[in-house]
Amino acid sequence: MSNYIPTTEEQQAQMLKEIGLKRIDELFESIPEKVRLNRKLNLPEKMSEPELAEHMYELAASNKNLDEYDCFLGAGAYDHYIPAVIEHITGRSEFYTAYTPYQPEISQGTLQAIFEYQTMICGLTGMDVSNASMYDGATALAEAAAMSCKVTGRKEILVPCAVHPEYKEVLKTYARFNGSVVVETEYKNGVTDIDALKSKISANTAAIIIQNPNFFGSIENLESFAELAHGNGALLIAYVDPVSLGILKAPGEAGADIVVGEGQSLGNPVSFGGPYLGFLAAKEKFMRKMPGRIVGQTVDKTGKRGFVLTMQAREQHIRREKATSNICSNQALNALAATVYLTVMGKKGLKEVAQLCVKKAHYAYKKLIETGKFKTVFTAPFFKEFLVKSEIPIQDLNKKLLDYKIIGGYPIEKNYPELKNCWLLAVTEKRSRKDIDRLASIAAELSSVGSGRLK
Amino acid sequence: MDRKLIFEISKEGRKAYSLPACDVPETDIETLIPPEYLRKSEPDLPEVSEIDLVRHFIGLSKLNHSVDTGFYPLGSCTMKYNPKINESLANLSGFAKVHPYQDESAVQGCLGILYNMDMMLAEITGMERVSLQPAAGAHGELAGLMIIKAYHESRGEYNRNKIIVPDSSHGTNPASASVAGFEVVEVKSNGHGCVDVDSLRSVLNDNVAGLMLTNPNTLGLFEESIVEIADLVHEAGGLLYYDGANANAILGISRPGDMGFDVVHLNLHKSFSTPHGGGGPGSGPVGVKKELVPFLPTPVVEKNEDGYYYLDYDRPKSIGRVRSFYGNFGVVVKAYAYIMSLGADGLRKVSEAAVLNANYMMHKLKKYYHLPFEQPCMHEFVISGQKQKEKGVSTLDIAKRLMDFGYHPPTIYFPLIVKEAMMIEPTETESKETLDGFIEAMVQIAREVEEEPETVLNAPHGAAVSRLDETRAARNPILRWKD
């Protein structure tokens, strides 16, 4: 028996006897002979725990990691500090080994935590209602787009090019199958070109999507897009960086109807792309069109406050093919990490994190420009990410930077061929002045064509 | 007294954070960002010290039932034990602190895990390739159905817009089909709880894109006519989709690919031991047969002749992305460690023990509760509380009473085709002693229904709250805390 199976061979024999069988194989007689696998699966030999640990340490060691490298890479996944207390909460067995809270009397811990999460997301975004989480920011965006089509009865979604390329891809995948149409529009000086949107908006437009800060890191004028959308009977979907909301105006205040985003920055490690959490919040009038789990407050038989999964008439297990979405499991534990993160930071801490990001990012921008090896790309205001133009290809530069234990920014040319040799750098509160100075001087040296001094 | 919310213990001036002082030249934020873009007031978040935070959330955790604190026979959810080594390994810096956009040369270990999981899950399911991008079971279903649609469209068969699901299916099946742009056609079950082959035959035509099936089905029964079903669907030009929610019964015993399925999703958070986290993160890999490989989500991890792993984005027939990056990687690491620690024999023993445990419980309980389908089950079984209902005690009451014994109730009122259903899945990680304890509690409850029904009707007696008014919650939604 394996260490995870507690019944002994003797007990198994006894259990078989009680049900009137002799061999375990007899339990599988309902499986037609023709479809039984009458051989051993071809898998690697099993490993003991120490062997497994050794194997995994080796695999882990073949990756470069952010504990050992200074990271200036963002583009949707950010190296913010994760307070130590978070893993002591999310590591509680009672949280991480529970299922979705279907039985509220013995799931009040998860339910109340989600209720607190929903309240914090509403507080940050300026929305009335938040759900319990989505798979990630990209799928939250795709669900918000589908929701806007249901709300407006229209089919077209306007998406500026300044939205993260992968989010656009996910949006297009969902749209191809749910019958909506994604229309892309241009950017100008690093922000969404409102005139381009004006020329494309019509009576078919269900929503305009604005990412803020956008993929280039630039801050968008949400209010002007809200006005444009509403003037045409469409919704404004704002995709936001939750950390930026420590200082940036709440999208609800700027007129957004649905707010979504990637919650990874809130206490979740970058973890090679997941698990993260998407958040999705909306104005109250759209509440019953929202996808996913939502927790509500109620009372028990004695009048005591308690929490339950609510408005389930929207969901797949009740409505089946008529549900607002097919989502079932979401990212509850990551949402718990976000809740604990926002509790640790509180209103002052989140503001401080956001301010540190802004100041350090601007300092890094200035230092890089001062080297003379990097040029300004856009002049729009930015939050924690910005572009500079290099003299050499970014992929080469990044490869060389690894030798100096630096993970460089994103080679944006991959998605925007017109932004040749442009480098998208992210600077979080974790980067010290020393780290930034080092990046600027080494990157400048490496950019000097024919430089032989550095390897 | 009500348990306080974090906002109700907040006090201005308290803090739980510690951040470095600004070490770059101080600049007024308003000179960097136009003031009209800035908040006028701080966001509405609580202010507490670290000990307040810890006591609050640890206090909340104690209100939860969990696998680590007690038996959790929640049918169709496979609440097996979550090995601790897997948690430790996924938290290693070399996995948890790796950025998804690092250069391929700097993430070979991560890509290797994704590639080898693809290969191992393909072997386990009898598929050609497996994408690890979907984030949960329903997400895997959606990706799989998109693949089916893209396949038919690539052959010019735009008319194939219907997906067949049995009336015993999970709610996510019809919901996913609908999100993928299909119409849903339901087929009835026969007297044995399996797909009625004649009903199926009557709905098969040129408009059918495929059939979604859970096998073993949601009654815990292996579809007896699976070979015939697969042939019929294929002859009609449709494809077969396997909902892997119940794969815990078949590991190393029978493979969906050999049963005739073309597309499979698995729930790593069910059969492959990763924890459910109170509702996620899960992981819902989707596997396909050879002719469907071109349609898998982008990117796919490939290995070149030198053993170097790389991401292949050049896939013109792909359905595209269904999620950012490469899926719930941290969850995949845990499932990878699980498979490596069990090997082929270990996985087979998992299914054998899971099926034995379920049959043992079913055998013991059928004397006290109605068993709608009298035949050996797979990894789970469904009993009905209809005998007890006649005495005025519902399945919901029985479920609540089980809490008093320290057990999580089974899945109730599902599948929809059994009245007063209780779907019990013990999993392989429970001992005979635990099963006997649960059986004893169920027997006692059956006796209470006869002798003292009030005890059951008023349950639970020892939980943090008594039964909650769900109607009130839905009618007058309070979805966030307000002052």
3D structure, described in words:
The complex is a heterodimer of chains A (455) and B (483). With 455 residues, chain A is α/β, with parallel strands linked by helices. Helices cover 36% and strands 15% of the residues of chain A. Chain A has three domains: 53 residues, no CATH class; 112 residues, Aspartate Aminotransferase, domain 1 (Alpha-Beta Complex); 259 residues, Type I PLP-dependent aspartate aminotransferase-like (Major domain) (Aspartate Aminotransferase, domain 2, 3-Layer(aba) Sandwich), CATH 3.40.640.10. In chain A, the strands form five sheets. Chain A has a seven-stranded mixed beta sheet, with helices on both faces. Chain B contains 16 helices and twelve strands. Chain B has three domains: 63 residues, no CATH class; 258 residues, Aspartate Aminotransferase, domain 2, CATH 3.40.640; 123 residues, Aspartate Aminotransferase, domain 1, CATH 3.90.1150. In chain B, the strands form three sheets. In chain B, strands 1-7-6-5-4-2-3 form a seven-stranded mixed beta sheet, sandwiched between helices. Chain B has a three-stranded antiparallel beta sheet with strand order 10-12-11, with helices on one face. In chain B, strands 8-9 form a two-stranded antiparallel sheet. By secondary structure, chain B is α/β, with parallel strands linked by helices. Classes of the chains: A alpha/beta (455), B alpha/beta (483). Chains A and B meet through helix 1, helix 2, helix 3, helix 4 and helix 5 of A and helix 2, helix 3, helix 4, helix 5 and helix 6 of B.
